[in-house]
Design goal:
The complex is a heterodimer of chains A (about 110) and B (about 110). Chain A has about 110 residues and is an all-beta fold. In chain A, about 0% of the residues lie in helices and about 60% in strands. The chains are: A mainly beta (about 110), B mainly beta (about 110).
Chain lengths: ~110, ~110
């Protein structure tokens, strides 16, 4: 059974810092991995999707990498801003099922 | 395009009562998902519909939870009777057939006292 963990559970940084969020999964036979953002009281917004054949994806100040063999993904946020404050979740879709298994998320606070 | 709509946004009930949540997906999205998100955890899939047929309900507690999507558009998730551990946010999402990207609604926050 696929299990997804995220470290740290919470992170607080001053504005302008570069930061890395970590995601680990137990079964490396994945189809793809997705990073989401969740704002309080709102649903999830997809940020980046990495297919199993890819090593990384970039969108603006966000860069996500994938290392299937070690069961890890990182989300790199450059030049953080207060508007980046949210919970970031990673989700893995494996080769056996059709749906995502989510991690518990990292709650990020960027202080002005 | 309009996003996924859910109602109500908040609901407080006592244990053993029943409750129902409603979801209207994005127009043209044949696939609809219901997730349960307990505080501090990631969403857990409860049920997935393709049009009005169930694709996956393996994690739905069928003794108390039920869901339907009669005309392949709107969906209703019901809990009867509710337990304290059902306190969570219930998220609805939709996607186009065969597409990975899911669009999420704002969720319904349920508190069972």
């Amino acid at each position: 059974k696929q299990e997804v963990t995220q470290i740290p559970a919470a992170l607080s940084v001053p504005e302008g810092e570069n930061l890395v969020l970590n995601c680990s999964f137990t079964d490396s036979a994945i189809y793809n991995l997705q990073w989401f953002r969740q704002d309080p009281g709102k649903g999830l917004t997809s940020l980046l999707l990495i297919q199993s054949s890819q090593r990384e994806q970039t969108s603006g100040r966000l860069n996500a990498s994938l290392d299937k063999s070690s069961g890890r993904s990182t989300l790199y946020i450059a030049a953080s801003q207060p508007g980046d404050s949210a919970t970031y979740l990673c989700a893995v879709r494996d080769n056996y099922g059709q749906n995502f298994v989510f991690g518990p998320g990292t709650r990020l606070s960027v202080l002005p | 395009e309009a996003g996924v709509a859910q109602s109500p946004r908040y609901k407080i009930i006592e244990k053993r009562q029943s409750v129902a949540f409603w979801c209207n997906p994005i127009s043209g999205h044949a696939t609809l998902y219901w997730y349960q998100q307990i505080l501090g955890q990631g969403p857990k899939l409860l049920i997935q519909f393709q049009n009005n047929g169930v694709v996956d309900d393996s994690q739905l507690p069928k003794d108390r939870f039920s869901a339907e999507r009669l005309k392949g558009v709107d969906s209703t998730l019901k809990i009867q009777p509710a337990k304290l551990e059902d306190s969570a946010v219930y998220l609805c999402a939709s996607s186009r057939p065969g597409r990975v990207k899911q669009y999420f609604g704002p969720g319904t926050r349920l508190t069972v006292t």
